[in-house]
Amino acid sequence: MNHSHPAADVSWWRTAVVYQVYPRSFSDSNADGIGDIEGLRSRLPYLADLGIDAIWLSPFYPSPLADGGYDIADYRDVDSRLGCLADFDALTHDAHGLAIKIIVDIVPNHTSERHPWFEQALRAAPGSAARDRYIFRDGTGPDGKDPPSDWRSHFGGSAWDQIPDGQWYCHLFTREQPDLNWGNEEVRQYFVNTLRFWANRGVDGFRIDVAHSLAKDLSEPLRSQPHLDSQLPLDGTDPLYDREEVHTIYEEWRKVFDEYDPPRMAVAETWHPTSSRTYRYARPTELGQVFDFSLLKCSWDRDQLIGVIRRSIEDHRDAGGGLTWVLSSHDEPRHPSRFALPADVRPEAWLAGNGASPTIDPKMAKRRGRAATLMMLALPGSAYLYQGEELGLLEVADLPVESLQDPTWERSGGVLKGRDGCRVPLPWTRAGSSFGFGGNGSWLPQPDGFGDDSVEAQDGIGGSCLEMYKEALRLRKKLQTRDDTLDWLNTEDGDVLHFRRSNGWECVVNFSGTLKPLPHGTVLISSQPLHPLGIPGDSTLWTRRDP
Ligand code: GLC
Ligand code: CA
């Protein structure tokens, strides 16, 4: 099926299962230790067999890798270590041939310091047009030696860095990621044309990086904002995040997406203290979809999960956009490990201790990981999977510090290990150098025993995590409906999360350590081997009753 097939469903993304590929860690075709586009293309049959609808490809653009590719030096090319535009076109072509859509990552808040625009800005004078594409300011205090404001970088420290002529530039992420000035018309046009560049090459959609941070209040004097985006006012008046004006950018982009047939889809990455403002980015006049990270921020706690599911369904309805769910990504510790942590242990703290305090029981982690996935896949809307979760991979919490690449490590002064533990290259085979990832090592070390979780060790093996994902995705294709009403059942049992969809599809999660009664109806799939007397602890079951 081709993406421009006349009968194409223009709202395919509303119920899609999207699989995130972090290209440097997926599959390495030329044994240089770095995953690449050709490696991904060679694995498309695997992804088709898994049963996903689309791939979201994290940045593959030329990048000095100060932030794992989210520092882009050229928005319209492929990094030569990952391939070339012809490889990208071949990937899109082959993916479409297997009915898999392609979503690319757009990073509009900042460029790399190696982007020609920033190089020009450094050479140009204060107040020049070249500097106006970014956020340059004079310093404060005696001789301008203090930063222009108290804004903070997400990776630690000030959001300002000084350049030799004395001016400062703003970077909400690393110093190698200067923030763009979205009040500048040339910047706006450049991104509109970048969207067209990729849409013309046949991509089906876009993932918009830190979509809530583009519009900033840059009026003088700059306002104080010592917080990151988890502590914001909820009225659109913060100087940096989630301002009302940011929505006009996406209204403009929607017009670009709608130039295409079928219209291109988009999904925003945004962070808010609560989900109440999240779904505004998904309004049909804007991006259509936004990541809802509320499951990702939960512990393995029945009441918490029910609470966020209820709220997300309501919030998304008010906005009229798509509903989404996410358990894992390239930015968060893998969900089986997270759900095995006691509720009062923050994942960052656990990682800082190399996963040793407390240690987690890998069996329990994998059980909960599978149970959580089956729960998510039974919810209305679209689900985002992260590469390797279908293998039940755990967070690699004990990466030696010398191997860490995430800027978080350095910018936090060696306190926070950052996100490398979920970016370890995938194991494809039981044994061999880099477990089949590439053949000659990998850019992050893989743990001993990784081969036991490999594709080779699980493919076609009944009861494996990989086979559970395949079966669940196959069933979901038949069962998923656009109807988003959920009937909550069995609510008096505090250890059980149980809901029914309008077509009689039921999902029960047992959070207790004891068996829970099987619901009526035909059992469709179970995250653990079926027990004749009931649903085992830490497991999820799907059944179906005639509506
Ligand atoms: C997003 C990305 C993350 C990156 C940051 C800066 O949060 O998901 O990986 O570090 O934006 O671009
Ligand atoms: Ca390679």
Structural write-up:
The protein has 547 residues and is α/β, with parallel strands linked by helices. It has a domain at 482-544: Immunoglobulin-like (Sandwich), CATH 2.60.40.1180. 25% of the residues lie in helices and 12% in strands. The chain contains 14 helices and 16 strands. It has helices at 37-42, 44-50, 85-97, 116-123, 129-132, 185-200, 246-257, 302-319, 335-339, 347-352, 362-377, 407-411, 455-458, 465-479, and strands at residues 17-21, 54-57, 101-106, 136-137, 160-162, 168-170, 205-208, 265-268, 288-290, 324-326, 382-386, 487-488, 496-500, 505-510, 522-526, 539-544. Helix 6 (185-200) runs parallel beside helix 7 and helix 11 packs parallel to helix 14. 50% of the residues are buried. Calcium ion (CA) is lined by residues 28-30, 32, 34, 36. Calcium ion is lined by residues 28-30, 32, 34, 36.
Keywords:
binds alpha-D-glucopyranose, 16 strands, binds calcium ion, alpha/beta, 14 helices, 547 residues, Immunoglobulin-like, single chain
Give the termini separation: 32 Å
Largest sheet: 8 strands, parallel
**Structural class, judged by helices and strands?**
alpha/beta
Q: What pattern of helices and strands is seen along the backbone?
A: EHHEHEHHEEEHEHEEHEHHHEHHHEEEEE
CATH architecture grouping of the domain at 482-544:
Sandwich
Radius of gyration: 23 Å
**Order of the strands making up the biggest sheet:** 9-8-7-3-2-1-11-10
Principal-axes geometry comes out as globular
* CATH top level label of the domain at 482-544: Mainly Beta
Separate helix tally: 14
Oligomer: single chain
Helix content: 10-25%
* Mean pLDDT over the full residue set: 96
Bound ligand species: alpha-D-glucopyranose, calcium ion
Query: How would you name the CATH homologous superfamily of the domain at 482-544?
Result: Golgi alpha-mannosidase II
Task: Count every beta strand, where a strand is a DSSP E run of 2 or more residues.
Answer: 16
Strand content: 5-15%
